[in-house]
Structure formats: structure tokens, C-alpha cells
Design brief:
Elements lengths: L2 H7 L11 E7 L4 H13 L3 E6 L4 H10 L4 H7 L2 E5 H8 L22 H10 L13 E6 L2 H5 L4 H18 L3 E7 L7 H13 L2 E6 L11 E8 L9 E10 L4 E4 L9
Parallel strand pairs: 1-5, 1-6, 2-3, 2-4, 4-5
Antiparallel strand pairs: 6-7, 7-8, 8-9
Length: 266
Amino acid sequence: MFPELNNLLNTTPDRAEQGKLTLLCDAKTDGSFLVHHFLSFYLRANCKVCFVALIQSFSHYNIVGQKLGVSLTTARERGQLVLLEGLKSSVDVFFRAQEEPHPLQFLREANAETLQPLYEFVQEALKPVDSEEAMWRYPVLLVDDLSVLLSLGVGAVAVLDFVHYCRATVCWKLKGSMVALVHDTGDAEDEENDILLNGLSHQSHLILRAEGLVTGFCRDVHGQLTILWRRPLQPTAQREQSLTYQYKIQDKNVSFFARGMSPAVL
């Protein structure tokens, strides 16, 4: 995890909030560093994590995790981490018997209208077990990333339904948390992506949006991060608060600074 990002969010693994949906969004840049942050954050917080990894291989996440001080291999062996490796599992779908259930069952269907098998995988992975109650603090669902489901032919409404049922189970019933990454394509004609992004934005308690610089590539500033806190139960004036910082990604850390205040500029 990145200590500077924890400071901006005013949180630590010891006092992480429960019952929250955090939306990670990237536009014209790669926001995967946010996924790695929250994965290592919740593992360090001693939470039971279900990680739906649709973008990269397990070895990729494990290598980055080791740089951030956590071992995904150890966490999986301990039962703390349950991983659905999309790149590997997607091949298994086509070699299984038709009647055998699979979390990525929708890949076999021409027009996937439901992600129920994927939801059932999450539900089973985070189901409370008596022997584990004292081991893990609370369950967490992390998805990297939901936009891939749109690319695979799943409709935005079906993805939103999946998120709704996961929130009901993880955030409300089990008092856990959920984190999901979505790409902002910036394409006005991509209605499905807009529906998904807008729908998730209205449901989220915290939104982290990483964007590329308008001026283009810069060696010392890799992008800007907007943090939006949404508190629907607060008075109108206090419901939303946002802050924007620029950042630079390093080998084992990410540094944040106010716009125009990069050490390289000063």
C-alpha cells in the first residue's frame, strides 16, 4: 500500500471503514496502481479478500504485492485471499461440461443477461465460516476491472445488477467493503460505459479518479488524482467533498503533491 495515499484518505489498515463501496476510475491513464494499493491495504488490515482479477495474471499481482510488502501466495495459502484469475479461468470455461457451473459462465452465452454464477462465486468465497470468524476482521470484494465485462458482451444493466447484489451481501449483510475499477473511455458514443460509470458513481461512498495530464506525457508528473467523498446522510453542504492532487509513480511507492507543486518544478 502507499502511505501517502492513506494520509490523503485519512485512513490506516487498523481503522478501515466497513460497509463502503469504493469506485476506482481511470481516464487516459492506467489506474491499476490504485488496485494494488487497496489489495495490499486490506490484506494488511487482516480482512478476508475475494479478488476477481480479470486483467492480469496472479503472478503479476503477486510480484507487485511483494514490492508493497505483502505476499499473495501466502495469503492464498492461509485462506485469507480467494482469487478468480480471469485469464486462466476463461480457458477452463470452454473445456468443462456444459452442465458444470463456472463463475465465467457468461462467456459461453451469445447474449449474457446475468452474472449470477459470478455472484455465487463471490458469495461462496466470503461466506462466514465458524473456524475463520476470529481470524479475519471482515470480508472485502475487489474487482479489476468491471469494464472488461462490457468488452466481453455483458450489458451495463447486468453488471450493475451484479454490483447491487454484491453490495447487498458484502457491504450490508456481512458488514464488509467493496472496491471496483472502471475505465472511463471518454467516448460519448459508448453508452454502455456511461451507464455503468454513472450508476456506480451514484452508489459509491468514495471515488478515486486517476486522469492523464492534459498537456501529455511528463517524466516527473504521471497524472492527477481526484478524491471525492460522498456522504448521502449528511446535510446538503457536507454531502460531497473533493480534493485533487498530482502524482508520480515510483518503483515501490507513489508520491502525491498539489497541482503545480512537483519537486521537479520547484
